[in-house]
Amino acid sequence: MDQQRLITFLSDFGDRDIYVGVMKGVIAQANPRLRVIDLTHQIPPQDIAAARFCLMNAYPYFPVGTVHLAVVDPGVGSKRRAIAVEFAQGFLVGPDNGIFSGVLSQNLAIAAVELTNLNYWRTPQPSNTFHGRDIFAPVAANLASGVSLKQLGQEIDPASLVKLDIGECKQTSNGVVGCIQYIDHFGNLVSNIPASYVQGKIWYVQTTGLSIPGCQTYGDVNVGEILALVGSHGWVEIAINSGNAHSQLHLDWQAPLQVVLT
User: Fold this and answer.
1) What is the arithmetic mean of pLDDT over 14-19?
2) What's the chain's Rg over C-alpha atoms?
3) Exposed/middle/buried for 28, CB within 10 Å: 0-12, 13-18, 19+?
4) What Å distances lie between residue 70 and 54, 125, 208, CA to CA?
5) Strands 66-71 and 7-11, sheet pairing
6) At a CB cut-off of 8 Å and minimum separation 6, what does 32 contact?
7) Count of CB atoms situated within 10 Å of the CB of 234
């Protein structure tokens, strides 16, 4: 167990309570030399779709072999599986509730296990409400320390892992139909339409009676005006220059939209 992998940590725990710190303590108990990088702990409570999006867009920026620990777990204590997954870029540890379906939509799962080996849990009698502390944190620490995936539990078919259905974008005769898949801290409305559909083209977005021009930067419109652009994540998004598109347009997750090519 001399191998040292990086751990990323994403949750909906916020920073008011001790949950994040406790999980880091459990990781340090298992191996105090491990490095943990917080992706975010401000995922809206129980928002698996937001967690899926954030993890999907973060994992490419970490070294091969990184262990991605993600805990947004409204089904904690139920019959939902606790899992670890290996893919070419590294490993995923958390609940089998669709939180990893974004990463796995872009990467083939090499292997997956249900976390049934109690030797790698913090306790054989885990809390019904805090599997992050009692199962996921110690498993992530052991995996990052060099324990093999197969040692952690019973092998399962990666095809059986839960997929979160956020809808797919579809080409039309004059553009692409999609939906809002994420709303960021600034109120930008991120769609599920990749940048590749609009690169090098003149386009606009239609939604709820609005026609929103496709732009390159926020500065292409005046302060307070609506625009559409390709954000840093690589998806078409709707924004307001120096404003909050979510609160002003009242569009929410899965709201439909269409990119029209001109």
Assistant:
1) 97
2) 20
3) middle
4) 10, 21, 34
5) parallel
6) none
7) 12
Tokens of 23: 């999980």
**Quick one: which H or E segment has residue 56?**
helix 48-58
Q: Cα(22)–Cα(39) distance, rounded to whole angstroms?
A: 16
Q: How many residues does the chain have?
A: 262
Identity of the residue numbered 246: H
Contact 257, 235 (CB under 8 A): no
Instruction: Count CB atoms within 10 A of the CB of residue 128.
Output: 10
N-term to C-term CA, the chain: 58
**What is the residue type of 224?**
G
CA–CA dist 181, 52 (Å, integer): 10
210 sits in which H/E element = strand 210-213
- Structurally, what CATH architecture does the domain formed by 170-261 represent? Beta Barrel (2.40)
Return the CATH class of domain 7-160: alpha beta
Q: Which residue has the tokens 């992998």?
A: 5
Q: ∠ at Cα 134 (53, 23), nearest 5°? A: 60
Dist CA 97 CA 43 (whole Å) = 15
Please tell me the distance from the alpha carbon of residue 57 to that of residue 242, in angstroms, as a whole number. 24
Break the chain into its structural domains and give their ranges. 7-160, 170-261
Residue 2: is its pLDDT beyond 80? Answer: no
Q: What is the pLDDT of residues 127-171, one digit of tens each?
A: 999 999 999 999 999 999 999 999 999 999 999 999 998 888 999
pTM > 0.85: yes
